[in-house]
Structure prediction request, 580 residues.
Amino acid sequence: MIPRIQKRGQRTIGLLYYLYGPGKFEEHTDPHLVASWDDNAPDPGRDPSATLKQLQNLLDQPVENVEQADRPKKHVWHLSVRNAEEDRLLSDEEWGEVARRMVAAAGIDDPQQGAGCRWAAVRHADDHIHIIATLVREDGFNPDLDHDALRVQAQARALEAELGLRRLNKGDGTGAKRPTSAERHKAKRQGRERTAREELREAVRRAVTGARSDEEFFDRLAAAGLLIRKRAAPSGDLIGYKVALPDDLNRDGEPVFYPGARLAPDLSLPRIRERWSGDAQETPATRQEEAPRTAPGAPASARRRTASATWQAVLVVEHGDDAVAAAHIAAAGEVLDALAKTSAAHTRRNLRDAAAAFERASRSHVRAVRGHDQALRQAARDLVHGGPALGRGEDGATTAMAIDMLIFLITAAARWHARKGHVQQVGAATRAAEHLRTAYQTASAQPLGVLYQRGRRLSRPMLQRQTVLLRETLPELVEQILAEPGWYALATTITEAEAAGHDPAALLSDVTERRELGSAGSISDVLVWRIRRTADLPADASHLPETSAAGSRSTPGRTTIEPSVPSKRHSGEEATRTYR
Prediction:
């Protein structure tokens, strides 16, 4: 339940005309009173003999009864109360009780306190009401409205619990502006799944992902098909912008433009420029690296670099300075946007949902110090310039690798926000992580299934060696790993790494130290991707020759231990299904 106190006004009749009228976009239906200061107040919506003028005169009567000099300059108070889309529809009686509780909480009219202001609650849509009040009490005094916004918010939280509605967290002023009722109705009439504001916010977020200059940013907006208006100072310097969808028109047939700051607090031009402020320190060598990044195989290479940058960013978020951690969290949002934009169809929807959810977690009152997040922003840029990835082969496998690393980064961001008491952001990051886990299951099914099958075909001595290695290197985790279906994929990966010249014990220690594994859904899956990235092994093993069993010699001093055997549902052809 979202209560919102609007700007105070001077004309009671003007607001009544709006509340009982058709709305700006014909979205108002059956406007009528659900409650008021007087149970016998006229209702122009349901009573044919009642008029708006009669209701206005009654509401304004206490104002007219005081001397002109004592009247408030703006005496019309206006509160809208809206439910979430997924909430059940409240009856008129329930909305009436909501209105009475809200005016009492605000200080407009509390029957227990004696004389109050006159007010009326109008319902002209299923999901919300409007409350109009005039700010002179029946005894001629003005109401005490100090902190009225905080009080109605607290009342909304109590009503959510009592009425079984979605429980919202207390806002902190850093959230993006929600679509208005008129915008939602307009989108519904036009057959859009989302409002123009929401579509524009996503388009601008994607345009700024990895961008390095005003020119590149505006070129991307134009390439996305948006209409752009730039705002310049008298000096000629660019200081702002507005964007519109070509087919989103007002009554006069003109495009409806939205300033960047009205889409989200961090999408104003000054805040966007902060993102690439750190690029000024970029070395020439770093810029020269960009040439081969659009070559064949670039999507897979970009995803590997994304996994590496994400791996390092987890440490920064967990242990770094707050301002630097905030910058990395914001940059993680860019990586999610870029990955969603360039991934294959079967993972794109969940990645888009993850990016949309995390957008709320990318901002807080901890101001990010840009520049330190350059590696993540470069990863986002690589993903964009690398182009669309296939959903199979090395592209698909490295997508799974990148998503796996991102789950840990987003989880670390949720924990960072929790330590700061950022309730809204914790919820957003948690939702983003859930979408990422779903995308991971889809992306990883085929490549992990191949590794599983190869692991099942490893010789018994080879599997015994890998089991002993785990017991000696990861004694606290070995039993859990051996019980997981991903154990065979991990055994294959360790074997390939050893064949490539790596010390398997050192490699396992390296990929587990300093990074927690407690939040992992499958420890063996996580270790597979960490080892394959660190050891520079191909992420997709479907076209590699089978690992030779020749290296399955016994190691002196090691005890032969029979590896755990997975249950029947994880064997044979069931392997691929395990990862779906």
About this structure: Residues 282-294, 548-580 have pLDDT under 50 and may be disordered. The first helix runs from residue 12 to 20.
